[in-house]
Amino acid sequence: MDHLHDPDLDEFDPFDEDSGIRCTTQVANAMFVTVSKIAMLVLIFRLLKHLQFPIKLRIFLHVAVATATIAWFSPKKILSLFIFHLFSLISLACCVNKVNGYKVLAFNILILIAFQNICRHAKSEEYFLTIRGILMMHIMRLTTVAFTRAESTIKRMSFDQFAIYLEYIYYPPFIVFGPYTTFEQFVKMRDGKRTRFEDELGLIVRAIPVLFFGVTLAIISSCHFEFFEPSSQFTEDVLTAMSFRFSHYFVCLTTQAFVIFLGSNVCISNPLNVEFARSPVQIVVEWNKPFHTFLHEYVFKRRFFNSTAYNVLLTFTVSSLLHGRDYQMTITLLALGFIAYSETVFRKRLAARYSMCVAAKPCPVRANRLICKHQYTTFSKRTLLVNLFFMLLSMYHLVFTGMTFTDDYSATGYPFSHAWIIWGTHYYSSFIISIVFIVLSKVM
C-alpha cells in the first residue's frame, strides 16, 4: 500500500495460532485508527454540504483542512506540506495561463522524480513511499484542472471558477486515499441535492459493509501467513500475489465506502471482476477504475501514435511514472500491458476466425439485449470452455505479476533485478504465452 505502513510483524512466530490472533488484532487496530481519522473528515464535510457557506469561506476551509490532513498523516510534516503546495502553486499558475495539460502532467512527473531522487540520496526512501500516493492523486487532479482550463473557451477565469478548481484540488476527504474523480464528477457530488435523514441513514447502511469488507481483506493481506503454511513454492507465490491484491482492495473499498457516504456513485474497484476476470484487459480496467479513467481520457484516447500498441505502451509508461522512478512498478505495469495487448490481439483474431464470442471484451449489450453476430454466442458450450480457459489464464497472470511484491524491499523500494529473478522461477511463462499469442494471431 502506498498510503499506509504495514504493521511490523517481525515479532510474531510464523504459523503459530497465538501470533495469528495477535497479528489480526494489531492490524485491525491500526486500520481502525487510520480509517476513523478519514471517516471523521468525511462526516464533517458531509455535514458542511448542508450549510450554505460563502465561497471564500468554503475555499479557506478546503485549503486549511487539506493542509492539516497532510500534516496529520505525514511523518515529515513541513516537508510534505512544502512539496504538496509546490505542486499546487506551479500547476495553478500554469492553469491560469492556459498551459497545455500534457506539459503540466510532464512537469509534475519530473518534480515527483526529482523529489524521489532527493529522498533517495538522503536515505529517506521509506518516507517517499508513504507520501507517494498522496502526491500521485494530487498530480492527477492538477492535470485534470489543467486540461479543463486549457480546453475552456473562457480567456479570463472568474473568481468563482477558480474557486471551484481549488475546491476540487483541495477536497480534504480525498487527499489521503483518494479517489481520483473527474472534475465533472466532483461538481456533481458537490452540487447534489440535500437528502432526508432516512436517505442519509441509507447511505451509512450501504457504506458500512463495504468498509468492513475492506478492513477484512487488509487483515487477510497482512496475517494470512500466520495461519497458513505454504506447502510449495507455487502456493507461496499465490499467497504473496494475493496479499498484494488484497492490500490494494482495502484502499479501494475503504475509499468506495466514503464515496458512497458522500453521495457519489463513482465506482472505485470491483475485486470479484479482478479475481475472476474475462481477460487481462478487464483486470486493467477494474483494478482502479478512476485511475483507468484518467489514463484513458488524457493519454490513450488522445492517440499520440497511429499504432494501438504504441499508445498502449505510452499509457502504461505514464501510469508507471506517476508512481515515481519505481523499477518494480514500471516493469510490472509494462509486463501487464504486454500481456493484455497480446491476448487482446489473439482473441480478436480467434473470434473472427471461428465466429465465437471469445474476444477480450464481450459483445455489447444494448437495451438489455446482447448484440452478438457470432455463430457461437456467449452461452454456447465451446465459447464457454474457451472463455473459461482464458479466465483461468488471467488468474495465473495475476499470480505472475503480483508475486514479485514481497516484503523484502517493500519499505525502501525494489531493485531492478528483483522482478526478473522471481519471474525466472516460473520460466517467464506469462511472457512466453504472450509471445505465442502474438505469433498465432499473425499466422491464423
Element layout with pairings:
Elements lengths: L16 H32 L6 H19 L3 H20 L4 H21 L3 H26 L8 H11 L13 H8 L6 H31 L5 H29 L9 H5 L4 H8 L1 H10 L9 H14 L5 H28 L10 E2 L2 E2 L10 H22 L13 H9 L4 H15 L1
Antiparallel strand pairs: 1-2
What strand order characterises the main sheet?
1-2
Q: What is the first-to-last residue Cα distance? A: 42 Å
The total count of strands amounts to: 2
Write down the overall geometry.
Answer: globular
Characteristic terms for this protein:
two-stranded antiparallel sheet, mainly alpha, 17 helices, globular, 2 domains
How do you describe this structure in short?
The protein is mostly helical. The protein has helices at 17-48, 55-73, 77-96, 101-121, 125-150, 159-169, 183-190, 197-227, 233-261, 271-275, 280-287, 289-298, 308-321, 327-354, 381-402, 416-424, 429-443, and strands at 365-366, 369-370.
Q: What does this protein look like?
A:
By secondary structure, this protein is mainly α. The protein folds into two domains: 51-193, no CATH class; 270-443, no CATH class. The chain is built from 17 helices and two strands. The chain has helices at residues 17-48, 55-73, 77-96, 101-121, 125-150, 159-169, 183-190, 197-227, 233-261, 271-275, 280-287, 289-298, 308-321, 327-354, 381-402, 416-424, 429-443, and strands spanning 365-366, 369-370. Helix 1 runs antiparallel to helix 8 (197-227) and helix 3 packs antiparallel against helix 4. The protein is globular and about 65 Å long. The model is unreliable at 1-15 (pLDDT under 50).
